[in-house]
Amino acid sequence: MEYIPIIVLVLSFIGLLSIGMPVAWSIAISSVLTMLVSIPALPAFTTVSQRMGTGLDSFALLAIPFFVLSGQLMNKGGIAHRLIAFAKTLVGSLPGGLALINVIGAMLMGAIAGSAMASASAMGSILGPEMEKEGYSREFGAAVNITSATTGLVIPPSNILIVYSLASGGVSIAALFLAGYIPGILTGLFLMLVASFWAKKKKYKVGKRSSLKQVLKAFIDAVPSLFLLVIVIGGIITGIFTATEASAIAVLYTLVLGFIYKEISFKSLPEILLDSSATTAVVMLLIGASMSMSWVMSYENIPQNISSTLLAISDNKIIILLLINLILLFVGIFMDMTPAVLIFTPIFLPVVTALGMDPIQFGIIMVLNLCIGLCTPPVGSVLFVGVGIAQTTIQKVVKPLLPMFLAMIVALFLVTYFPQLTLWLPSLFDL
Amino acid sequence: MALRKKIDKVLGNILIVIMGVMVINVLWQVFTRFIIGTPSSFTDELARYLMIWLGILGAAYVSGRNMHVAIDVLPLRSSNKTQKKLKLIVYILIIAFAFFAMIIGGLRLVYITYTLDQYSPALQMPLAVVYFAIPLSGALIIYYKISDILNIK
Amino acid sequence: NRLSDTRTIKLAHSLDVNHSVHKAMVKMGEDLAKISGGKMQLEIYPSQQLGTERECIELLQIGSLDMTKVSVGVMENFAPRMKVFGLPFLFRDKEHAFQVLDGPIGQELLDEGTKYWIKGLAYYDAGSRSFYTKDKPINSPSDLKGLKIRVMESVTAVNMVNSLGGSATPISWGELYTSLQQGVVDGAENNPPSFYLSRHYEVCKYYTLDEHTVLPDVLIIGTHLWNDLSEQEKKWMQQAVDSSVVYQRKLWAEAEKEALEEVQKAGVEIIYPDKTLFSNEVEDVYSDIKENEDMYNLVQRIQNTK
Ligand code: NA
Ligand code: NA
């Protein structure tokens, strides 16, 4: 009986995808079919509607349309070009230079804001077109952007670590934040390594080393554009606005600068607005639909059933940690991060603390693990943002994503089996 | 086709206005809190509800332009005739979902929130207005998909 | 579930599993199974798994969820007269609050939701709310001047903080920790266990126990289910609910004490201000109410409750 919902969910979803149903509709339809297992038709239909609507009811999601919009304005307004020209003088001579810029940018963005979707929309809209111009494949660019955006969820500040703190019954947020730095940066470094190898293998163009004079010239050119970073970062750090609000400020600033550079006119504005709306809508429908899927998984207790079945296998510490990671990886495929953290923290935390693991370390393991899930279909908000902005398809991105996943999994296992990576920094501060 | 173009145009204009208002609204939020010092109590809620409208109505818009992300593994490998049949099935299933979940389910949600007098906490706006985007979008999607079916070549 | 004799009731709430409300619900489930001889089972979904408080109420109305727990602050959208609890310094003290909630007025307000397809079953204790601030201690209302204080998204809460001299700023609970850290707001207000469990004390070092509002939690059941229950089942349900309320209030008192001890240990300065300074400040709020006859009568009845 308890296995019927998961069977309906997985089979209907795969069936729909294989006949060519768009992903968003596949998610929505398989969710409603699963609901029909135990909810009468009329309430089930109404519930899907409600979940799709309220799934978008979040102020934090606003960062997506705004960064998409400001990204478009930056591209059309010449700001992006100047910024990237400057960055290229710095790392352009390394293999995969632009990809490295993307990862570093995502980590910096992550250190300011707590949202991977904001980072993916910002970096994707600015760097994507430039990467293509340089001969990178669109899918490779998207894959780098998608995976590196998740580092911001481990590098503080991070809203998801706050959620974990609540779910765990009060692990120190300050300690969790400190614990996140090394794993986040480590993951970023691994991603850079993989991106560099990939770029070398594909023989992507490598720029010449720039002279100091060229660097300076590009820098001066980029000063007004760099000032955007000063405003955004400065505004957030000094508490003038929140990370989400910063995305609206970015729109204003890029618009004004675009007018000054005379590369944007009032006449071209409606088209830019419509383009960003459509890109946003593709992502939003995916997110709304996947919220229905997350909901029905919770409702049918699917996560709990999976974990109780698997955890009964062994009582060896190494194997249990492996199993927990595998369960989380599997769940992350089908479930959004926040509900997964809320559901699994109370289930797994007692198990791992009984094995002697620190709750701080486990929090980082959990978030790092679920970061991979954010990049996989069918429920993967960061994947949706990255693919939507790059205007490519999920199946094309999968190939370049695989080696990136490998990098993330290696980082995950290091963090799982080497507690020092998470606990050392907090211990310096007696936390 | 003339009607379809007209609907595209109107829908597009609505999205442009929603997006524009969203930006101004959040800038106003920062302005009232930081410059004026009396934070606005409704901007957060307005932004979230505009977002629901943008996402749900936008779903109809991108559906009309067939911009949705699909994984076409099977269809590409099958014959032209099977491809047409699969396309037909996909469109009919989308129509069924739009009808049952978005129109029936959505209208019931609108009806419940309307007859039960549900208002939003800050703006005191009827929640039925917020949720009305769902059946509306459902109806537009059905229109687009029927028109797509008639155009399968 | 109609195939067997057992009825499984789905209950969702937004608090984590360590919270007194969740523990009381677990006990309620055990009691319900025991007294009904296994005919009624409770399935609990904690931690906002099925949605926020407002969304869960909607799910009751839609018919896909049976029971939920919300703060009266959320409930006031569904039972408007519950707005009365948002009034600052409405109750003289905790005993007075319990007298009102457990008496005819409390019952009247619980029943009011039935026309919105939801029925209140009981009040759980959520203590009283007080201000906490980051940099500046609050000893009197004048210290609140110019401070941005986070409030829940509710007109009543906005008015309450503004009437005390603060600058009410609605921000979602989830974004509050970073907003406090980065200085988007200067402080917030909540009960001691929430201040402790949310870890906001890591950022805010002053907690002023002015106890301005008492906002209890309300346990509610959808009328879809309630009207379907037999008289016997209703009795079992109410019995299990009532004993969970007694248990929860005991747990809450312990949690409150523990929270204050723990935040103090973490270096928070707890300020016990002269509460009359604060209650004097809100007289306007009460004189404004005279225009609304129904609300005014309700306030009178509450104040006259011994
Ligand atoms: Na971050
Ligand atoms: Na996923």
Please characterize this protein's 3D structure:
The complex is a heterotrimer of chains A (431), B (153) and C (306). Chain A is mostly helical and 431 residues long. Chain A contains 21 helices and no strands. Chain B has helices at 2-36, 43-64, 74-77, 80-115, 127-131, 133-150. In chain B, helix 1 runs antiparallel to helix 2 (43-64), helix 2 (43-64) packs parallel to helix 6 (133-150) and helix 4 (80-115) runs antiparallel to helix 6 (133-150). Chain B has one domain (2-150). The mean pLDDT of chain C is 92. In chain C, strands 2-1-3-10-4 form a 5-stranded mixed beta sheet, with helices on both faces. In chain C, strands 8-5-9-11 form a 4-stranded mixed beta sheet. A two-stranded parallel sheet of chain C has the order 6-7. Chain C is α/β, with parallel strands linked by helices. In chain C, 44% of the residues lie in helices and 20% in strands. In chain C, helix 1 packs antiparallel against helix 10. Chains in contact: A-B, A-C, B-C. At the A-B interface, helix 1, helix 2, helix 3, helix 4 and helix 13 of A face helix 1, helix 2 and helix 4 of B. The complex binds sodium ion (2 copies). One sodium ion binds next to helix 6 of chain A.
- What's the main sheet of chain A like? none
Q: Which chain pair has the greatest contact?
A: A-B, 63 and 58 residues
**How many structural domains in the coordinates of chain A?**
1
Major sheet description of chain C = 5 strands, mixed
Give the structural class of chain A: mainly alpha
* Heteromolecules bound: sodium ion
Mind sketching the topology for me?
The complex is a heterotrimer of chains A (431), B (153) and C (306).
Chain A: H1 4-18, H2 23-38, H3 41-54, H4 63-76, H5 79-91, H6 97-112, H7 116-133, H8 138-149, H9 151-154, H10 159-167, H11 173-201, H12 212-237, H13 243-260, H14 269-299, H15 302-311, H16 317-334, H17 337-354, H18 359-373, H19 381-390, H20 394-417, H21 420-428
Helix pairs in contact in A: 1-2, 2-3, 2-14, 3-14, 4-7, 4-13, 4-14, 5-6, 5-12, 6-7, 6-8, 6-11, 7-8, 7-19, 8-19, 8-20, 10-17, 11-18, 11-20, 11-21, 12-13, 14-19, 15-16, 16-17, 16-18, 17-18, 18-20
Chain B: H1 2-36, H2 43-64, H3 74-77, H4 80-115, H5 127-131, H6 133-150
Chain C: E1 7-12, H1 20-35, E2 40-45, H2 53-62, E3 67-71, H3 72-75, H4 94-102, H5 104-112, E4 118-124, E5 128-133, E6 148-151, H6 155-163, E7 167-170, H7 176-182, E8 187-190, H8 192-197, E9 206-214, E10 217-222, H9 223-226, H10 231-265, E11 269-271, H11 275-281, H12 283-289, H13 293-304
Parallel strand pairs in C: 1-2, 1-3, 6-7, 9-11
Antiparallel strand pairs in C: 3-10, 4-10, 5-8, 5-9
Helix pairs in contact in C: 1-10
Bound molecules: sodium ion (2 copies).
Domain TRAP C4-dicarboxylate transport system permease DctM subunit (chain A): 11-421
Transmembrane segments (chain A): 7-32, 52-71, 173-198, 218-237, 243-261, 273-298, 318-335, 340-357, 363-389, 401-425
Subcellular location (chain A): Cell inner membrane
